[in-house]
Every structure is written in C-alpha cells, then in structure tokens.
C-alpha cells in the first residue's frame, strides 16, 4: 500500500510540487511567527533575580526652606539631612511589621540609572563589562532578596558591600557565554580591580556576582553594577525600601497612616509606601498590551493559514471522490482510505518541512550566528506540529464527506 501511494504521488508530481511549495511557504511563515512569539514570551519564564513580594518603597523628599528663615550652610544642611534619614530609617527598622529596611539610590527594581563600563586593571580584556549603576546600603541585599551566582549567603554579600567592594550581575543561563552588553564574563571579574575608563585607575573591587536585576519580565536582562551606599552620603539617598513580614502588608500601611514619625522628620518627608509589585504592573503594562496584540495577530494569521489549507485540500479531495468510491467498491476499508489520504498529506508536509528548515536555518545562521540551535530546533518542531495538525484537520473533514458518498452517486458520470 505504501509503495502504491508513493508511486501514485510520483505520477502526480506536478500537482504535488505546487502543494509542497505552498506548504513550504506556510511552514516558513509559521516558523517566523513562532520565533517572534517565543522571543516575546520566553523572557517571562526566566527568574527576575529579586523578590518583589512584600517589598515597599518610599521616596524621600526634602522640605523646602521657608523664605523668611535664615540660610543654613551646605555642610550643616547635609548633616541635618543625614541625621534625619538615619532617624527615619531606624523608625522603620524598629517597626514590628518590617523584616528589614535599607537605603538606595536607583537601587530598587523597575528603574534605570546611568550606564557604566568596567575594565580589569590587569589589561586581560580589551572589551569591558557594561551595566547600569545602582547604589544600595548593605541591608538592601536582604530587602531585595538578591541571590549570589557563586553560592554565597546574604550575610556574605552584605559583608562584601560593607568592605566597599561592588557586586555585578549575570543573567539566567549565561554559563560560559559572554554577556551581550559587554565583553567580559562577570564570573571572571570576581576578585579583580576594575576601572571605569580604559586609561583610568582602579576604582572598584568586584566582590561577587549576583543574579541580574531585570527591569521587566519581558526583557531578558541587562548588566548591573551594584555599588555600596553609605548612610553617611545623604545627598545620594533617594528612597527607603523595606521588606515587610509575610501577611503584614496591611498592618504596615496602617502604621504609616497613623504614625506621623514614619512619614517624615524635620528636613525630610517620604511619599506613601508603594508596593513594588504594583510598580511592576505599571512598568510592564505597555509590554503586556503589545504581547496581547501580537498574540491576537498571530492567532489571526494562524486562522487564515488554516482556512487556506482547508480550501486547498478540500479541492484536492473532491477531485478524488470517484477514486475513493472505486476503492470502497474494491473492498478497501474506511480506515485504510482515511490513512492513505492523511499519509499523503503528511508526506507532502515532511518534504516541505525539509525545504523550509534548510531555508530557515540558512537565513538564521547568516543573520544571527550565535543563535541557540536547540531553540531553533524547538521552533521548527513547533511549526511542523502546528502545520501537521492543520493538514490533518483540513483533510479529515473533506475525506469524511467523500467516504460517506455512495459509490453509485460518485461514479454515476463515468
């Protein structure tokens, strides 16, 4: 039966070539759509590098001086601000609903700062490590829930920052590859002195590597340079971040509303606590809308492609109603006829898949030589499964109708 099917397909090679060409175009289109959708959704499956649950942030604001008051020296103003920030910080640390509190300057999630490039002072790398600079006090390691890429504990990471050393970030699944935003592998910089200019002097000592602080679940990752922030630097502190004990969020918010000493002191005041998970929703809203629109577009294209296949195979099967009737008269079972029709469609699809895979891989390797072969194979397999389901469904309904046609009616014109 298989040999007879292949012989029949060989005899009908002209029509089959057009079907293969159409399936090749469809397979490439589905592969491109799968690649685009994978590019959007895959980052959402990666870890964020921090824990934003039960994390609250208060922005620090300075009280404007009264126009009638006497001017205060800059040094005294900074000392007053530093004292007030530390008093306010201790107020949060002593709150029974707070697990840990710290200070930061652009150190909390979903915000950027200036970009810094680091080079090892020993000249081993000609291309630097790029990362956004974030400044935090050592306690922020526990506030943010940072995880060491080398297995160090939170206490060890805090000790690194207290020694004045910096932390840099990697990204999930990096292993031996070089970070996209730079040229240095982060793990190779541990224990090295680095500079922020190719011809500059040593400025930082890299203490460890931690998981990346992602800006959004739709972004794969960016490099980050985490610099220790001293409580003695009041002009740099811009926010207070606290990790609230699990289930104490409402109690913490109630304390803030009812206790003026948590809202400000003399020269400073803070904004109402903002839950970082809400900031995440706001930061990702545009990407979520774009992903939904793109997903809807892909579904629409899938429907169009399916209808196109259905029309093509419907016409093809209708041309063979008489052949099907003759096979039934000759004793062929419904299952044998159905398997023959589906098998022919899948053989044509397999031939088209080989062509589409060769074209897609050639284009991808030329445009992106560093692409992941397993990801490409997964997308090609997904495209094949989608088109195969479409082919089977497109063949099943017209084949079902053709097999229900009485042989006498089907061949009455012969």
User: What profile does the largest beta sheet have?
Assistant: 6 strands, mixed, barrel
Any idea what the radius of gyration is?
32 Å
Shape: elongated
Low-confidence stretches: 172-182
Query: What is the H/E order?
Result: HHEHEEEHHEEEEEHEEEHHHHH
* Strands, count: 12
The number of helical runs is 11
Describe the overall structure.
This protein has 414 residues and is an alpha+beta fold. Helix content is 50%, strand content 15%. It has eleven helices and twelve strands. The chain has a six-stranded mixed barrel. Strand 10 (264-265) and strand 11 (268-270) form a beta hairpin. Helix 2 crosses helix 10 (373-404). It is elongated and about 105 Å long.
Spell out the blueprint of helices and strands.
Elements: H1 2-11, H2 13-41, E1 55-62, H3 74-93, E2 98-105, E3 115-120, E4 129-136, H4 140-144, H5 154-162, E5 166-169, E6 193-195, E7 204-210, E8 224-228, E9 239-244, H6 249-258, E10 264-265, E11 268-270, E12 274-275, H7 276-318, H8 321-329, H9 334-367, H10 373-404, H11 407-410
Parallel strand pairs: 4-8, 5-7
Antiparallel strand pairs: 1-9, 1-11, 1-12, 2-4, 2-9, 3-4, 3-6, 5-8, 6-7, 10-11
Helix pairs in contact: 2-7, 2-9, 2-10, 7-10, 9-10
Summed up, what is this model?
The protein has 414 residues and is an alpha+beta fold. Helix content is 50%, strand content 15%. A 6-stranded mixed barrel has the order 3-4-8-5-7-6.
